[in-house]
Amino acid sequence: MKLGVFAVLFSKMSLEEMLDYVKKSGLNTIEIGTGGYVGNAHCDPKELLADESKLEKFMQAFESRGIEISALSCHGNSLHPNEEIATEHHEAFVNTVKLAAKLGVENVVTFSGCPGESDYSKHPVWITCPWPDDFSTVVEWQWENKVIPYWKKQTELLDEYNVRAAIEPHPGFVVYNTETILRLRSECGEKIGANFDPSHYFWQGMDPVNSIRALGDALFHFHAKDTRIDSQNNSLNGVLDTKSYRDIANRSWVFRTVGYGHGEDVWRDIISALQTIEYQGAVSIEHEDGLMGVNEGFTKAVSFLKDILIEDGAKDLWWA
Fold it and tell me: What CATH number should be reported for the domain whose range is 2-308?
């Protein structure tokens, strides 16, 4: 495994400034944002695909520093009922897949998307319970009429360019847990897998270690981010919390830098689970901690993870 970072943390820096800063921090692996909700501050796929000289300059910026791109990420909702948003996010995904092929990058990270409850919806509708029966009917309609047809079509694109889609399970989208990502993969093919973010699993009360083992080779890419559950607020209100992320004192849970939601033992178990399934990709640091700045969160995450990361694993066991 290789320790890396999701570069949207440093969107205010130029590409060169960001690469130099990451390199100075001792990392050689970077995930780049290419559109959708995360923006494209360092990489505009449409622009690079249209201009070979710009593409060559972009590639050289990484090669000259010995930095590898672990993934191109365009987290979006291509199933959005608003056609303008859906089109924008779909085009970002298509262009990102094409650029990934040119760069030799295996993974494109995004969300599954979430449609509305019908063809007349204006906003996405995420269902959290099966009853009244209307809710179950909506879930079935979403999967059969929107989700599966869309991702089957995208699998053709992924096959054409030999790129994988690492879908990030996240509440608010139809793929939000272990069984929904495995369902999408079962329905649409093995070019579909997971971008695994433990913070989303902690948030929902799942066990990241068990989920990692259940995913196995369907786990394509990994985000290093933590969640702290507020025991008092959670005991009163549960994890379905729609309050602002800024309202930290009253929320049931908040995103934290790794080690600030769960201790070293938990993260050692997570890294060991990745090793158990023979994951050899990036451990990509993501920062959404409202209690510390970007640079502080990043440097603390690097220090914490360097101590527990298993880079090679056992190769020759003398007793085996």
Answer: 3.20.20.150
